[in-house]
């Protein structure tokens, strides 16, 4: 029988390693945090160096063997709002307060107080903050598109476009890797063959969009609206689709391996030959879906709604 267990890595130190090298290794050791359900990866040095007397620094100091409880994947659990933690973590990295215009500054302030980040609190109270601005507008996009062929790969890699209206535009073959597209209006846009790998699409509106053959591995689509989309042959491996609305979407041959679809609305989706191996489908609404030939091996189906399916799920589809 095939094993589908998670693989964890550990850092080992040899007995003849010098104390200074061991100390340096521990400081720079990568850690994963689960803050209110959102996953963050950083180093102990980042968490402890900026404000060493803060609560979060003390949590991850070298003498703390276990800062908090851990989830099933080994991430340290912090029962706070992950939405605001992004700004907190960026401050710990570079010492500045840069926040998205859609993020409530009062929320960031309250989180800073909770984590004991006095320096961050002072910066916010003194108004020493920076707001991320749109670098491009819809008109800029249209000007670029009319002078380019749809077969040409345009590069908007890493560009900040939060909140921009790109609805109904032909955006085929554009490289949006690492781009910030949170809160964007991409409804009824043609995004076929785009690269959206590791892009931030939280709360984006993609209703009716064409996402055929899109590459979006590790993309963040939490609470995004994807109702009635064409996601045929789309690669969404390890993507975050927690709370997303995908109702009525065509998702034939889509790859959702180890994707997070917790509490997602997937009612009446066509998932013919979809690969959802290892996906988190906890509390996901799959009512009325067509799961013919779908691969659900190793998927978490706890609390998932599987009523009125077009065809019953066969044991061979879910057996590990």
TrEMBL record:
Domain BTB: 31-101
GO BP terms in the entry: protein homooligomerization
Pfam annotation, one family: Pentapeptide
Recorded coiled-coil stretches: none
Source organism, top-level taxon: Eukaryota
Region feature Disordered, mapped onto this chain: 1-23
PANTHER family: BTB_POZ DOMAIN-CONTAINING PROTEIN KCTD9
Record-given protein name: BTB domain-containing protein
């Amino acid at each position: 029988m095939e094993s589908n267990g998670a693989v964890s890595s550990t850092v080992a130190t040899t007995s003849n390693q010098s104390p200074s090298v061991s100390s340096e290794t521990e400081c720079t050791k990568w850690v994963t945090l689960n803050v209110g359900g959102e996953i963050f990866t950083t180093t102990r040095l980042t968490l402890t160096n900026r404000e060493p007397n803060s609560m979060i620094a003390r949590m991850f100091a070298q003498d703390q063997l276990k800062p908090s409880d851990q989830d099933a994947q080994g991430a340290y659990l912090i029962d706070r709002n992950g939405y605001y933690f992004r700004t907190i973590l960026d401050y710990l990295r570079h010492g500045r307060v840069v926040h998205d215009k859609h993020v409530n500054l009062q929320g960031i302030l309250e989180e800073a107080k909770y984590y004991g980040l006095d320096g961050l609190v002072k910066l916010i109270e003194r108004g020493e903050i920076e707001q991320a601005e749109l670098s491009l507008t819809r008109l800029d996009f249209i000007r670029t598109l009319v002078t380019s062929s749809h077969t040409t790969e345009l590069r908007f890699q890493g560009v900040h476009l939060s909140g921009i209206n790109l609805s109904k535009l032909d955006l085929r073959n554009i490289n949006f890797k690492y781009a910030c597209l949170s809160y964007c209006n991409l409804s009824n846009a043609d995004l076929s063959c785009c690269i959206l790998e590791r892009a931030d699409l939280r709360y984006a509106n993609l209703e009716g969009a064409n996402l055929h053959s899109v590459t979006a591995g590790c993309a963040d689509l939490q609470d995004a609206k994807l109702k009635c989309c064409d996601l045929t042959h789309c690669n969404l491996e390890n993507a975050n689709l927690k709370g997303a609305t995908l109702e009525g979407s065509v998702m034939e041959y889509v790859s959702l391996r180890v994707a997070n679809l917790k509490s997602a609305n997937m009612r009446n989706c066509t998932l013919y030959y979809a690969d959802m191996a290892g996906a988190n489908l906890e509390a996901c609404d799959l009512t009325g879906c067509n799961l013919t030939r779908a691969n659900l091996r190793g998927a978490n189906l706890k609390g998932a709604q599987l009523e009125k399916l077009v065809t019953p799920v066969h044991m061979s589809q879910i057996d590990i």
